[in-house]
Input
Amino acid sequence: MSRKVAIIGVGNSKFGVRDDALLQEIAFEAVKEALEDAGITQKEIELSVVGSVGTRMYEALPAVPVNEYAGFSGVGPIRVEAACATGSAAVFTAYNAIASGYVDVAIAIGVEKMCEVDTPTSTAVGGRGGNYLWEFHMFGTSFACYYAFYATAHMNKFGTTEEQLAMVAVKNHKYASMNPKAHFQREIKLEDALKSRIICWPLKLYDCCPISDGAAAAILASEDKVKEFRIEDPVWIAGIGYASDTSNIVRRPDYVGLSATVKAANMAYKKAGVEPKDVEVAEVHDCFTIAEIMAYEDLGFCKKGEGGKLIEEGQTYIGGRIPVNVDGGLKAKGHPLGATGVSMIYELTRQLRNEGGKRQVPLKKYIALAHNIGGTGHYGYVTILRR
Amino acid sequence: MSDAKKIENPTIMSRKLLFLHKIPILKTKKFWDGLKEGKIYATRCRKCGQTYYPPQADCSKCLASDMEYFEVANEGEIVTFVASYLVPQGFENYQIPYIIAIVKTSNELKLMGFVEGIDYKNIKVGMKVKITTKIQSDGFPAIIFIPC
Output
């Protein structure tokens, strides 16, 4: 019988080009905020889990300096990697350690420095994820290419338009402009997005998330510790689903959705005992605008093929049927790989506590969902929170 | 995307580190040799019949290691495609945009390759292509799709 696990503290560094700080220094910002938020010190942490992809960095063991600098020597680190879903894998690892009864308090730290190498290097490292030998080696497939394959197929099958893709960017920039921790701090117009240069057709500059540095942290605790720390009414992890898909993209049946999303979502919904219609606020994996549209469909927020219509109707804005990425999303808040999944938990925890400020989503059921994909559906995590 | 103001903070350069890997191809050598002769090989498990493209020596399904090679059909149709203006490190000599497509062959396998001889604006999903191979000017092999 697994134990209940609460989120008792969250922290998030400023995302962006952080040439003012080292890896461990930005992780420190997130850890300090999370500890202060929980009202505890490092002494209470029994396990530290550090999520960092690390493939763009000069430090071969990123978890080690991160852990020491945050004051957790001796309690971990367990280092985890699940590409762009690394942060969710870190949360899942910390969750399991508590649910199983192995420890009572654990921290999940997600951190990535991506801006220290040039763009061609970053593009090559990202493109190598999946199955290098049969894809990148011969064809130089960047990550934008992978999602562009899905965009072309989705547009062809369902009539999804470039305008609908651009609408996702407009929404996410709007919320990023209201989030001081986001990489981009300005709104964009639909015309700007449509006129932006082609990165990998059909994806244009504004369809793509930036290359960012950043960190986030979440402190998880057992029910006993929640009582001991006298934390009233915390956010609980209601269910986590995980899945994967083929490493070779050519071995998939189609390119209009991610089966890893569907499988992980079904598992999380079942574990949490909720349905898509119960979700009141969601963080979805919008590394590219097409990814957000596919996520609407694959998570069950609309029917397959109607994701474009959902954004066109404004249903994923605050006040709509299902507000999505109201912190700016990967698209405009930024996507420091290891940090992203933990940052989703940061945002949703604050939303569920009604601490969203100008970006607060009105809640009745207090059910939130985080959807985090690694690679092009090579890893998939869906985490459901409730309060 | 550039922000209006970019303040550069003090930094120092790391030590240089260059990676070049020797990749073992013993178990799929027929595929790599085939590319030089215009042939593309997939494998089929002699025990359970599962087919694999890209080819592999071991069967992920039944765990046997007894594969036979067969040639992929030389025609297919485009399932999806992209036109990339990005130049990842290692592809500096490639002309942009380069068009990459996923093509489904008449023997129900899907392949990735470069599309040549057409502007990407004129490509449509479902378009029929001839499938061939070539050795690029930098010595790397590639699979090439040419619209019929």
Observations:
- Strands of chain B lie at 41-45, 51-52, 67-71, 75-84, 98-105, 110-115, 128-135, 141-147.
- The two ends of chain B are 39 Å apart (CA to CA).
- Residues 23-71 of chain B form one domain.
- The interface with chain A takes residues 1, 3, 6, 8-9, 11, 14-15, 17, 23, 53-54, 79-92, 94, 97-98, 100, 102, 109-114, 120, 125, 140-143 of chain B (CB under 8 Å).
